[in-house]
Amino acid sequence: MTEHLDVAKLQRRLAEFAAARDWQPYHTPKNLVAALSVEASELVEIFQWLTPEESARVMDDPDTAHRVTDEIADVLAYLLQLCEVLGVDPLAALAAKIDRNERRFPAP
Amino acid sequence: MTEHLDVAKLQRRLAEFAAARDWQPYHTPKNLVAALSVEASELVEIFQWLTPEESARVMDDPDTAHRVTDEIADVLAYLLQLCEVLGVDPLAALAAKIDRNERRFPAP
Amino acid sequence: MTEHLDVAKLQRRLAEFAAARDWQPYHTPKNLVAALSVEASELVEIFQWLTPEESARVMDDPDTAHRVTDEIADVLAYLLQLCEVLGVDPLAALAAKIDRNERRFPAP
Amino acid sequence: MTEHLDVAKLQRRLAEFAAARDWQPYHTPKNLVAALSVEASELVEIFQWLTPEESARVMDDPDTAHRVTDEIADVLAYLLQLCEVLGVDPLAALAAKIDRNERRFPAP
């Protein structure tokens, strides 16, 4: 993970991209969570008729691999934009959640 | 964003958490995208009856703020676990997507 | 299918239920589609970690069967309320769609 | 609502359509709920950037009206196919749910 690819820098690029197109009025938290769920469903669509085994080989086909990677990017894009407008640090939120889960569900 | 919170480290903690509970057989790409979409919908549920204006103030209430942050963590957790099983680098995927979008949709 | 259970009658009961609680201002098409997608995801949640075979036996357990039936009712409730506010006849929409699909995708 | 458009008849047409294309092996409950949630999200996609007021006028544009009606048909198609494979009567499920809700949440 290079410095170039850190989360804060991606958030800044996404914010500049949206600002240059005057999209901020559309980027209410309510609209961004809807867009996030739509992108997550576009990922589901790729997998919906596959067996578990087929789903495990989905990256073997270059076209499908590209499509999957692209939808993952879209999900992450809306998640980071949502975090930006809400003032949530997504990595800190996840670290805190893993801490909580480790206490609540001790490994057997 | 401290070193402690980098994406690769969070992915490692999630993988260890799942392995310690023998959850890997459940973590097919197909199941993980379903779980991701379910968590995204739990975010939508918080916002579904709010006006755009109310949605912009959602972090003012500490309980709702906690719930939102928790669901964001869940979405990110499944997204990172999906990337892990597929061998996708989520930050590189998003950087490449922003590059493409900047070429395809030049700012006015 | 008895007369008592026809679609128009269920729509009327749902509309009266909402009106008695002054919920109409919340029932914009945008909010109703969000609620519909949230209920669909609650169905997905029941199945997300199941194998295809386990998913086929989901009605064998009375508690799960009740939960599935209840979520189906919720999906249908929001779908019918959406149709009501939009003036769409859902059965006619589906019949027209099947007609189109039969022309577009002739059986082999 | 004419006899021609009753729910049981639509379910029969959907079942025949799927059988003629040998799709039954794909129509596990798990896959059908995924497809249902994907179609619900395609409805959300139409509304995601609209204001509440714009969403209330969505049927004024014939192209959008057609798209909305088509997605409603898709949601209903997967819901009815799910009910078919699970042996659930969707109208009876909804009637029972409304009965329960009327008891649990008496009108003010």
TrEMBL record, chains A, B, C, D:
Q: Which Pfam families match?
A: MazG-like
Q: Which InterPro entries match?
A: dCTP_Pyrophosphatase (IPR052555), DCTPP (IPR025984)
- Give the transmembrane region(s): none
Name the Gene3D superfamilies on file: MazG-like
Q: Which residues form a coiled coil?
A: none
Q: List, alphabetically, the CDD domains matched.
A: NTP-PPase_RS21-C6_like (cd11537)
In its UniProt entry, what is this protein called?
Nucleotide pyrophosphohydrolase
Please tell me the species this chain comes from. Answer: Streptomyces doebereineriae
